[in-house]
Design goal:
single chain, 171 residues, alpha+beta, Alpha-Beta Plaits, globular
Amino acid sequence: MIYIVECDFTEAARESDWNIWYSSHLKDLLAIPGFLTAQRFKVLGAGTPTYRAIYGVESLEVYTSPAYLGRRLGRFPEEWRDSITSWKRNLFSGLTRPPSVALNECLVLSTAVVPPAGVSFDTLTIAGLDRSIPEIRMGVVPESLGRHIAQQEFPGVTVLQPLTSYQVSTD
């Protein structure tokens, strides 16, 4: 299953510190049984929310497990909460793990009826949590194509640039 967290961060003066914290937060989640992979992204070009974290998880039950609930990782720490807006969490079926996106590639997400040409998409269907969109398409492209798609500003299409490398659980 694919778990996508999206949000904006509104305090520019602290954004660098927040990004450092969030990168370490990926490792905290990967230490929980059932979290398989993690990678963090920022929108390339126009579009909000600005940030996405995309995880591979075994099942919806991960979110009710004692390991997850005991660590209280489903909420941002108090020090960041006032600066985080547009926070959504969606869980999708359709892939076991999200694709690994190299630092010279982009991830294209599409809810458009007609997605952009030149992208090989996997279609994911909503399975839990906020359920803010019924389905999404996901495909990896070279950075040059990602930048081209981002400049076109297709409705329902978001291009993401990796902020972190693809991380895999060691469990």
